[in-house]
Amino acid sequence: MRLKYLGLNHVLLRVSDMSKARAFYIDVLGFQPIQQNEQRFLANVHGSLIGIVAADARMPPGDTFSPYRIGLDHLALGVPNRKALETLKAALDGAGVRHNGIERDPEAKADYISFYDPDGIAWEFYVMPLPIRLILGLSGLLGFKLPMQG
Fold first, then answer.
1. Residue 94 pLDDT greater than 90, yes or no
2. Which of 53, 99, 127, 135 could tie 115 with a disulfide, CB 3.0–4.6 Å?
3. What domains, with CATH codes, occur in the chain?
């Protein structure tokens, strides 16, 4: 059986402090909320939906994010080139956001910056060269499969 769907609909992140999360995601990263209340917000991030939800009673006391547990490792936002990374690094520095500076992914041969939200959830700004952006866009529009590599 082959399942049919349109693509990724949204990502939902649980956070420990909504006021810190709002300051980070809306004020620093510039996410545009399209729905919100005291316990959550849903943001449009260049056509992708990301939800941020407050912790609830089911969350273990003192729980923290770890990319080394089963589940989410990190999320990456695409940027066009290294110059954009340099601009974003300066903005992260100015906002006091913890990050690892500009690094190089040896397998993909691409530059990126790892940075962290107030709960330590790992994010990246990741350079997506134009040919890759075009191929991904066309594959989505035309519905064809990309060949596997490696």
1. yes
2. 99
3. 8-56 (3.10.180.10), 74-144 (3.10.180.10)
